[in-house]
Task: inverse folding
């Protein structure tokens, strides 16, 4: 693939799948600086991967796979280097500025997702976005059975937390 | 509450973007980043080059003067006397050192005159940022990585050889070997540093080019 085609493909993806990028970033990075850092990391990896995209999977699935695997690797790397981390430059914060009218229910949901381990976070995002067990297993390189077990636990966990919230009147 | 309810809440994100771009804040951030790049480039590349060139020029000037006086006054006749070739070599050394900084000075001045113009919009700030990165990339080109250390090392080499001759050694091979070693090692260091620098600059440029493309599409 020519670099121009790769660039065009990536620009198109960035435009049409912005929401996907942001969902993954919000689930894996908590501070604006980290969110921007991860956003750039994902964007770079997706751009690199665009050269290898053959259209065998849908673009959404492809981007999700790259984004989630990048986010998982980033989380592992970040937890190792967390103490020495410097904030990134000023430009970074501007890109991922949370909307002032963010839905508190969505915020709560992201808060719950962030408390899960990195694989469970990926599974939760994919589950909420309507992917099948087979697709999730293929994207994350795990077995369908394992996905099934994990998803049941995640559903139970999230539903019980939501019920607690409702019961407490939040 | 059932899981389907959570999914319905999740899906509301698709109706309304959760994130948005703050154009003015982004422009300020880009501007700060560009200023930082300009200062860093001056500190790490231009200022040291100017200082080294000045040092070489002054040292070659003193050597020329000392060698000339020593020859004219016929001091220590057993030592090598200053020949026309010594004079030419010293001039060439000064020329090499000055050629490097003169072209760097000219290019930087031209670049800075464009960079110093106030960028009133995000698009212009992006253009300036890309131009700054292109300028940085030009100093990592293959010809630059060869030319700059080679010319500076040539100036240093001439200085070392002529100082050797001034001190009574007719053919200072050791000094010459040091000069050649200096050229090779500085080019090697230049190439080693180039690859990583280019990769980082390309990544930053890619981010800016993507933002500009998104701005063209009115997507962000």
Result:
């Amino acid at each position: 693939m020519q670099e121009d085609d790769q660039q065009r493909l990536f620009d198109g993806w960035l435009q049409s799948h912005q929401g996907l990028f942001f969902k993954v970033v919000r689930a894996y990075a908590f501070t604006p600086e980290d969110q921007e850092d991860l956003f750039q990391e994902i964007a770079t990896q997706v751009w690199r991967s665009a050269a290898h995209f053959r259209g065998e999977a849908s673009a959404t699935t492809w981007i999700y796979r790259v984004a989630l695997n990048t986010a998982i690797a980033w989380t592992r790397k970040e937890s190792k280097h967390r103490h020495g981390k410097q904030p990134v430059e000023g430009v970074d914060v501007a890109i991922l500025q949370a909307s002032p009218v963010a839905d508190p229910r969505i915020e709560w949901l992201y808060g719950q997702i962030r408390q899960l381990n990195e694989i469970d976070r990926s599974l939760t995002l994919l589950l909420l976005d309507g992917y099948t067990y087979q697709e999730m297993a293929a994207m994350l390189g795990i077995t369908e059975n394992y996905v099934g077990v994990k998803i049941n636990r995640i559903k139970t966990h999230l539903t019980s937390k939501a019920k607690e919230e409702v019961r407490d009147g939040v | 509450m059932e899981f389907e309810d959570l999914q319905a809440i999740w899906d509301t994100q698709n109706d309304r973007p959760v994130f948005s771009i703050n154009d003015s804040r982004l422009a300020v951030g880009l501007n700060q980043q560009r200023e930082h790049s300009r200062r860093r480039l001056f500190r790490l590349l231009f200022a040291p080059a100017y200082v080294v060139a000045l040092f070489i020029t002054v040292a070659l000037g003193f050597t020329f003067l000392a060698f000339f006086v020593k020859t004219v006054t016929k001091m220590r006749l057993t030592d090598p006397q200053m020949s026309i070739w010594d004079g030419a070599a010293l001039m060439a050394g000064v020329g090499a050192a000055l050629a490097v900084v003169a072209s760097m000075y000219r290019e930087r001045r031209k670049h800075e005159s464009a960079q110093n113009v106030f960028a009133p919009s995000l698009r212009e700030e992006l253009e300036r940022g890309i131009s700054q990165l292109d300028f940085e990339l030009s100093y990592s080109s293959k010809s630059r990585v060869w030319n700059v250390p080679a010319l500076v090392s040539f100036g240093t080499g001439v200085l070392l050889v002529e100082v050797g001759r001034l001190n009574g050694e007719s053919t200072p091979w050791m000094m010459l070997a040091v000069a050649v070693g200096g050229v090779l090692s500085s080019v090697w260091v230049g190439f080693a540093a180039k690859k990583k620098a280019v990769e980082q600059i390309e990544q930053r440029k890619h981010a800016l080019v993507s933002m500009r493309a998104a701005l063209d599409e009115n997507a962000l």
Remarks:
- The two ends of chain B are 35 Å apart (CA to CA).
- Chain B has a mean pLDDT of 81.
